[in-house]
Write a structure and sequence with these properties.
Blueprint (H helix, E strand, L loop, with lengths): L31 H8 L5 H14 L3 H5 L1 H5 L7 E2 L11 H5 L7 H23 L7 H26 L23 H18 L12 H14 L3 H9 L26 E5 L14 H4 L14 E2 L1 H6 L6 H5 E3 L5 E3 L16 E5 H14 L3 H15 L9 H15 L6 H7 L3 H11 L19 H6 L10
Antiparallel strand pairs: 1-3, 2-6, 4-5
Length: about 475
């Protein structure tokens, strides 16, 4: 599945120009013909649209939202575990026990596949100005590309820390060689600037399901500001989202129902569909993240922990809607649904942002600025929908603790918990306690350096200017 370790190429910004239409995860094709075709491409609107679609397609790659971001965002946390660590050469088990190696193939794919998408977005943004097309459509496409490039950089920087910041089309493979990694703060500043520009360019509603809208840019910008402890600055962006027409679904079982995709709660998600184009538009997520034995061919990675299952109270409608138990008592995610007889052709979309996330981020921001009335209000929107008792908490510490708990329950399996623990400074303490109190983790130890993942060894081997993160 992953061929990156066999190749000798550098996977920072150099390959996106070669992949105009592929949806495959195995992308490499460095033939001169590909480069020549790319150089002569984007002569008209139809060709530009193919380039735009290629950026969206990159979100489906294993190293982006098909496997890497849901796994990296959950397995290192107390929300999910690896039932069969030996499957897939311990690739996922390393995240469970913090034995993560620089040659981890999922991290290699994450670095590569994000930069493929970034480079493709760079190409579109570099060339769109010269294309004759309707100005409102040109604005929308520009906003979409700025958003997607910013989202990819956000994933890279919160996973690896300093990463090479490449913002223009790369035509010379040596152009960025030897420049090393860009400081995290500079990358974040770029991301914020891009998203602020995207907000003004994007439409409020999508012309097609799955396209980026203003609400997505507002929400991801706010999440980035919150990650940087800019709570007061994030609030005005969050406040603009609900009036755009989003609403919580009253029935939590409908949020992830494949028959109810792109519903009123979803602000942005990555599209997967079973049975299209020779099964190339589906995902492996259901196979990889379902219990082994319970689902034929499943790999048992990234399953909900028994602890998170037990945290839901009996009256919480999310308990059986989001997490189930196999006959053997192994928890599994109900957010991923079998949609095809081909287990590798899953049709569940991967949600990047939904309104429940916005509400809990608003609750957190209000708590941080000592507006406890509004903090309780938005926290209780999520509690009430789940059928659990509302609260009226009067201290910041109580509110932040309760919000963190609700985030943990609401978004189990969606790739948020690990990043929430890191940004709130709780990762080491929470996971140390979890290891001490959970059977099977007597050898697991988390250190401060584990808050960042190791830079893929292949990058360092190719360009010695790219240095490894401390501890690895």
């Amino acid at each position: 599945m992953h061929k990156s370790r066999k190749m000798k190429h550098i996977y920072i910004p150099l390959f996106g120009l070669l992949f105009l239409q592929s949806c495959s995860s195995d992308l490499l094709n460095t033939s001169p013909e590909s480069t020549k075709v790319t150089a002569n491409f984007y002569q008209d609107e139809a060709q530009l649209e193919q380039g735009v679609n290629a950026v969206y397609a990159s979100l489906q790659y294993n190293g982006q939202y098909q496997l890497a971001m849901p796994a990296i965002g959950e397995i290192p946390s107390d929300n999910t575990f690896d039932e069969v660590p030996a499957n897939d050469s311990f690739t996922y088990g390393e995240f469970d026990f913090f034995t993560i190696q620089p040659n981890n193939s999922l991290l290699g794919s994450a670095w590569k596949d994000h930069y493929v998408g970034i480079q493709q977005a760079n190409i579109v943004l570099n060339r769109i100005g010269g294309i004759s097309m309707d100005q409102s459509l040109k604005n929308a496409r520009t906003g979409e590309m700025k958003f997607l490039r910013a989202l990819m950089y956000f994933n890279l920087v919160r996973t690896f820390g300093d990463v090479p910041l490449v913002t223009k089309e790369t035509t010379d493979v040596n152009e960025y060689f030897g420049q090393g990694r860009t400081a995290t703060e500079r990358v974040y500043t770029f991301i914020e600037t891009e998203l602020k520009a995207a907000i003004d360019l994007l439409p409020a509603t999508a012309s097609q399901k799955g396209r980026v809208t203003k609400g997505a840019a507002l929400g991801i910008l706010a999440k980035i500001l919150i990650t940087r402890n800019k709570y007061a600055e994030a609030l005005p962006y969050l406040q603009q989202i609900e009036p755009l027409g989003y609403s919580l679904l009253s029935d939590v079982t409908k949020i992830f129902d494949p028959a109810n995709k792109n519903n009123a709660e979803i602000i942005f998600d990555v599209q997967f569909t079973s049975g299209l184009n020779g099964n190339t538009e589906g995902s492996q997520t259901y196979q990889m993240f379902s219990p082994s034995g319970f689902v034929s061919g499943a790999k048992g990675h990234n399953l909900p922990t028994r602890e998170i299952y037990n945290i839901f109270t009996s009256g919480d409608s999310r308990k059986n809607a989001f997490v189930g138990l196999t006959p053997n008592g192994v928890p599994y995610s109900k957010k991923l649904v079998k949609t095809s007889d081909a287990i590798v052709d899953g049709g569940s979309n991967i949600v990047v942002l939904r309104l429940a996330d916005v509400y809990l981020l608003m609750a957190e921001c209000y708590a941080k600025v000592n507006d406890f009335t509004n903090s309780n209000l938005y926290l209780n929107k999520i509690k009430s929908r789940a059928g659990v008792n509302s609260v009226n908490l009067i201290s910041q510490q109580q509110l932040l603790g309760e919000i963190a708990l609700e985030r943990r329950k609401e978004f189990v399996g969606e790739g948020h918990r690990w990043f929430d623990l890191v940004r709130t400074g709780q990762a080491v303490s929470v996971m140390t306690s979890y290891f001490q109190n959970t059977p099977g983790y007597s050898t697991a130890v988390i250190k401060d350096y584990n808050l960042l993942m190791p830079v893929p060894q292949g990058q360092i081997n190719t360009d010695p200017a790219i240095k490894q993160n401390p501890g690895y």
